Amino acid sequence: MSFDIGSLLHGSGSVGDLLQLIIPATGETLYMVFASTVLAYLIGLPLGIILVVSSPDHILPNPWVERTLGTVINILRSAPFIILLVALIPFTRSIIGTSVGTTAAIVPLVISAAPFVARVVETSLKEVPYGVIEAALSMGASPKQIIQKVLLPEAKASLILGVAITTISVIGYTAMAGTVGGGGLGDLAIQYGYNRFRTDVMIVTVIILVVIVQIIQSLGTTLARKLTH
Amino acid sequence: MIQIKQLVKKYSSPQGQVMALDDVSLNILPGTIYGIIGLSGAGKSTLVRCLNLLEKPSSGQIIVAGQELTALSSKELRKARQNIGMIFQHFYLLQSRTVSENIAFPLEIAGVPKTEISIRVKELLHLVGLEDKATAYPGQLSGGQKQRVGIARALATKPQVLLCDEATSALDPQTTLSILNLLRDINQKLGLTIVMITHEMKVVKEICTHVAVIHEAHIVENGPVESVFIKPQSDIARQFVSTVFPNDLPVDLLKELATHRDSEIVRIQFLGTRASDPIITDLLRTCEVRANILYGSIDHLRSTLFGTLTLELQGSPEQLKEAQQYLTSRDLKVEVIKREL
Questions:
Q1: Between helices A15-53 and A156-177, what is the axis angle to 10°?
Q2: Residue B242 falls within a domain, yes or no?
Q3: Pairing between strand B16-28 and B2-13?
């Protein structure tokens, strides 16, 4: 594959042709990334909280819950995403109705990202000094109040950074989701950029991905800094 | 106010069972400032944490304000804890909340309406002298200011008891004094019962009315501060007293004094008004002895004066005996120090 800068401008495809490919693919990527991240947090955040509070010497110690949940999370996290993607096809079909397409790709993305989120959340919540929790206990706070008023608010900055990390790794996974017809920029890069030698497509998709990652990371960092007092 | 009955706390460790508290009983009266002093590892922190059940006793009873905490359900215990404030060595403020919001926190937990919370927070900010820091975050405060927030927060729900777990150990001496003064004011203004855990006798000396000395999981001695300071019964209590009132004479001096004949070394301790009496002059006028002042100090125990004076008295054995009797008759505590090394 030879690199020709001219192809970016007027090579095998016009700029209009390029935009026609890029714009919908960017939309698909953003849709997959944000929908999966939000859903992964809906599942992973409560799991992360349970992991922390059920650990020994925390507010609701429960070795059985902690160990079982921890094991399930480890199993899901050890399965390579590409395997999960294929293995989950029947499951995806049963809830979405199809195993092909952008929406269908969200299912394996969520299943893969949720345990990751649980661990990221766990790490953030464990940063809250236990003394602060004990102070709340000494005031008569209930476990629910401690989670809502101490653990989550005190870990807010760290949780936000976790969201940025999760979102960025989900972007990486969406590229693989392309292989099952998920669409998006990753798919475009493989279909056009690699298989059809469209270097212009390849370069533009990479640039867009870099820009998206940069924006998410700096949003996360700025927000976290604002929340740190 | 607080009764501790046969409290036992054991921990299991890989090396076997560790006794943190062994059959501890104490009765803490309302309005007192009760110091609990011990070396690190003596069990004092465990003891104070048992008083609000942050630490679950292995056996025994804890009764606070007539309520047996050890018999309550977890919901009742949460309610009871609102009557027991606590402050900590490392403050443990919520970093994500301002000073006002930190003080409001226990009130939110107790379900107090918002309008009442803001009134109460203002009162508390005034009480601890932090009106100008209401919107600051803990990260912007000094250690002393953080502990003031801790105190305001602990008092928000108007508890009858305040537990202090090494509350001044992370502060410099001057800040320590200002925090102790604040605690004393609160004790007098609000009639609050305060339990102070510390390893520093000077904290006890400043504000405590009573003290318990804890050593190796046992309370070895307890009572009003004056009696423990003047007449410590145990070695460990004596060591603690000597950290604030050092009265050991230098070894070289003792060696030299040991060669003197017809003399003895006496230590006189006096409290309150006795401190302003001219006892040495009186002694010399009444008895035929000569006195050599070796060491003297005067300080205060809370608000009363507490002094100690070490003298070498010279005279015949009869004269020395007479001098001792005279001093004792003046209501002073006299102790003859052995000269043999």
A1: 130
A2: no
A3: antiparallel
ipTM value:
0.85
Quote the pTM value: 0.85
Residue B206 lies inside a defined structural domain of this protein? yes
- Tell me the residue range of the domain where B278 lies: 251-337
* B244 located within any domain: no
Say yes or no for a CB contact (<8 Å) between B93 and A132: yes
pLDDT in tens, B234-292: 989 988 888 888 767 788 888 888 788 888 888 888 877 666 778 888 888 888 888 88
Tens-of-pLDDT digits for all 229 residues of chain A? 444 444 444 445 577 888 888 899 999 999 999 999 999 999 999 999 999 999 998 999 999 999 999 999 999 999 888 888 888 889 999 988 888 888 889 999 999 999 999 999 999 999 999 999 999 999 999 999 999 999 999 999 999 999 999 999 999 888 888 767 778 888 888 888 888 888 888 899 999 999 999 999 999 999 999 998 8
List of E strands, chain B: 2-13, 16-28, 33-37, 59-64, 67-68, 84-88, 161-165, 193-198, 210-215, 218-224, 263-271, 290-301, 304-314, 333-337
Overall domain count for chain B: 2
**Where among B236, B269, B300 does a domain terminate?**
B236
The amino acid that residue A75 corresponds to is I
CB contact under 8 A, B81 and A149: no
Residue of B nearest to A142 (CA): B78
Judged by CB atoms closer than 8 Å, whether chains meet at A229 and B96 is answered as yes
* Chain-chain contact of A136 with B109 (C-beta, under 8 angstroms): yes
> What is the chain B residue with the closest CA to A224?
B96
Query: Residues 6 or more apart from A163 whose CB is under 8 A from it?
Result: A37, A41, A220
Of A129, A139, A156, the CB nearest to B109: A139
* Look-up of token digits 């205060």: B300
Same domain, B15 and B99: yes
**Tokens (6 digits) for B139:** 């990260």
- Chosen domain end from B212, B236, B260: B236
Task: Identify whether B37 is part of a domain.
Answer: yes
CATH architecture of the domain with residue range A6-227: Orthogonal Bundle (1.10)
B78–A contact, CB cutoff 8 A: yes
